[in-house]
Amino acid sequence: xxxxxxxxxxxxxxxxxxxxxxxxxxxxxxxxxxxxxxxxxxxxxxxxxxxxxxxxxxxxxxxxxxxxxxxxxxxxxxxxxxxxxxxxxxxxxxxxxxxxxxxxxxxxxxxxxxxxxxxxxxxxxxxxxxxxxxxxxxxxxxxxxxxxxxxxxxxxxxxxxxxxxxxxxxxxxxxxxxxxxxxxxxxxxxxxxxxxxxxxxxxxxxxxxxxxxxxxxxxxxxxxxxxxxxxxxxxxxxxxxxxxxxxxxxxxxxxxxxxxxxxxxxxxxxxxxxxxxxxxxxxxxxxxxxxxxxxxxxxxxxxxxxxxxxxxxxxxxxxxxxxxxxxxxxxxxxxxxxxxxxxxxxxxxxxxxxxxxxxxxxxxxxxxxxxxxxxxxxxxxxxxxxxxxx
Length: 390
Hints:
The chain is an alpha+beta fold. The chain is about 50% helix and about 15% strand. It folds into three domains: about 10-125, Orthogonal Bundle (Butyryl-Coa Dehydrogenase, subunit A, domain 1), CATH 1.10.540.10; about 130-225, Butyryl-CoA Dehydrogenase, subunit A, domain 2; about 235-380, Butyryl-CoA Dehydrogenase, subunit A, domain 3, CATH 1.20.140. The chain has eleven helices and nine strands. A four-stranded antiparallel β-sheet has the order 2-3-7-6, with helices on one face. Its EC number is 1.3.8.6.
């Protein structure tokens, strides 16, 4: 039966297998995540035991085709990201760090031996990875990274620091990007290596169901086979970031949809002045405006996914979805909170939790400003990433 809230019939643009996969992931999140997520968020609890289950469900590295990976299409990956973030951004972030960042780096730039060694246990959730690019003094400008890898005989020695590294305190391996005499390179670093340390960043106001950390690399010695041979320069990490940004544009619409559905149900049941809140004109205006942005944002994500599956997706097209969808999702969640009144300030209802999470999502994998400048460069041909450049 058609969804009466899907006014553009976007479901009609999906294939049968795509809808079945979406519904399968939705059932999983409804049963395993949604009933517990408010408590996890309040306690800042990372459900570590969820990783093997995510692996068994085929949700880790789901879009990759390497050894042991599910090999799903881009739209299927997006639909799963939407359902995961409808439960909580922190959970979708865990899947993104593992699959879109750490596993993608190994799959795209690793040797055959690295891919065979690391990808199957990561896809199964038996081994956790993290992705070390951002630094204390190099966030939006990764070209300013100070972490360095010095040649040492047949191996390398790493020195430096990373910040806001998801899963770093629980990871078994870290993909670390560092300067070398040949340029920026990527390394697979077992986190048990002496000199590697990770400290949780606490307390956090968002993404409290996942972990982010400061990482210190103090003379971390690696063998030569730790180097990712296919990555040279910033193209390597940027390729991984694009994979994560793609999932974000879908996920943000999942959070927005959940907030909107909560507001719709609440205003239909809550009565003031003897009538349901949903009967007031101002309430209906808010509900309609929210629905419009969710439908438009989902259409942007779907179009982007079709381009990605066809191998025709361009870098700046990903920026459209990341910039627009996260920005609009935050407004949807904030508006949904207003319709819940004071009750919207409690953990019983998800809109404010979603909005708080999305503030973090808005910042990572490229701020609004960075994606605006990416799009500005695409439109004008003029890069404006440095002060006074234009």
